[in-house]
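Consider this pair:
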Amino acid sequence: MPAVPARRIVTLPGDGIGPEILAPTLAVLEELGDFEFAEHAFGGAAIDAYGTPLPEETLEACRMADAVLLAAVGGPRWDTTSPDAPRPEQGLLGLRKGLGLYANLRPVRPLPALYDASPLRREVIDGTDLLVVRELTGGIYFGEKTRTADAATDVCRYTVEEVERIARTGFAAARSRVTSVDKANVLETSRLWRETVSRVGAAEFPDTELEHLLVDNTAMQLVSAPRHFDVILTENMFGDILSDEAAMLTGSIGLLPSASLGADGPGVFEPVHGSAPDIAGSGRANPLAMFLSAALMLRHGLGMQDEAAALESAVDRALDAGLRTPDLGGTATTAEAARAVLSQLQGD
């Protein structure tokens, strides 16, 4: 049989702790398959080098890859309120738009070994296993923007087609229930969202339960009854906020991965956390969310189901064996965390 060619992975280390958590992730991946890694500038680092957070060369390389592994972007050195100055986060929006990535998946599953690290009581989070499905390329983030000396506007716009395709993603991922989140008591875009999700669910997924919740009610229930949720389906800005809230159920945002997917072409896989410039260079960054993002890449981007499960299991076993980085109340360094997971993968 002919040899399977190496999977082409574009890596975007980005800023802050990004390079520190990406490097051990590549070492972990090399235990699981044959990959060809190509690093490109992105975010603040790209602004410094090229004057833009997403150079055309980087975007083109991403388009040609099998998957994209992104570490972290941003930092105070690039913070600005000037509408004309480039910001690292603009690179994220450009990458999503350029690759047609309209669906963001964020699984949230608190691990029993870390229940005590969660700000919520053990009995509240026990058994929680939910998925936030966030629409990524519409809404207020991509709407028309205006700015004058004394006023500003951001237009929130959705089309039926945009809502239909993200609704199908959410229903397809659900085990039993989709909770569609909106603000239909106030916003016209939310009324369109609710009507469209209801129609798609009834016509194409009649065996899946559908409930509608207002975003403020959802925010309260996430911390009072998180076990209730299976799939949370929501638009761009609400999803941005709710997924970060859901991440804290695990006790640390340093444990949450995400996948951004489109209809075809490569997906982008990245941890939920930011660039943590306050600890950059200290060796204290938690690489586990980056490892788990690589597992999502293996599963959703490359169809390597067994390898994805092996990596997730290795992370779980390392935590069960006592691995704790500073954000989890321990002292393990980035390198020590990587060695603990590698040891589990290698069966040491």
